[in-house]
Amino acid sequence: MDWYERVIVDSGRAAALWALLAFLVTFAVTRAVTRRIRARRVAGPSADGGGALADVHIAGVHVHHQVWGILLVLVAGLVEFRWDPGSPWTEVLAVGFGAGAALALDEFALWLHLDDVYWGADGRKSIDAVLVGGALGVSLLLQAAPVGPATDGGALGTVLYLLVVALHLVTAGVCVAKGKLATGVIGVVVPIVATVGALRLAKPGSVWARRRYGEPALARSRRRFGADYARRHDRIRDLIGGAPDDAAGGAVTPGPGRKDG
After folding, report:
1. Is rRNA-binding found in the keyword set (predicted)?
2. pLDDT tens readout for residues 121-150
3. Where are the chain's structural domains?
4. Mapping DSSP to helix (H, G, I), strand (E, B) and coil, where does residue 216 land?
């Protein structure tokens, strides 16, 4: 406990730690539950009739878990902003915020497509969103910051400081223009990530590639981000969140308003 007090509490990182832990645990539990529900459905009606794990319906409406997540984030944020209760309640609110963020981001693809794509190929975007959220949580826990304190170096020091900050934000923007949204978002907090992403090749469908690349550069981009690249990334996302229906051996195809969990 002495280590926790000295390293975490005294440095002001307790809320960030508990929010990150709640985020990771909630995501893991949520995916375990939704995968179990889907497995029962795939097994057939005889396996889907009982058990404590089931979709939540209120007045005949299937309530997706992103709803509970959004409510948790709103309540935790409003209470913290309004009353600033201090420790240990700040840590309790951080747990609620982290859990709510996990529930909401686990259905990020549903926000984006306004459709029930949770177990579709497009549902992999939710895994991307969770990975970005987790990376940002780790960065904040490590107290990384997009801009550090300005040095007291007079006018020249201030100008150089502002130039460094501007360059950092420009590199993050270049990452986004190159189709690397996750790299750009994480790069806002961790400058070296944005710098590397900005220097490397753009994705072929990105704004940067369409406007600035000739055919030779586009060909290199297509080779770099081709089918092998997509398969590698899909394997990682499927390992974390479960394979989509079209890659899971004939799982139940989602219909309007239906999702496991």
Report:
1. no
2. 999 999 999 999 998 898 888 865 555 555
3. 1-45+65-143
4. helix
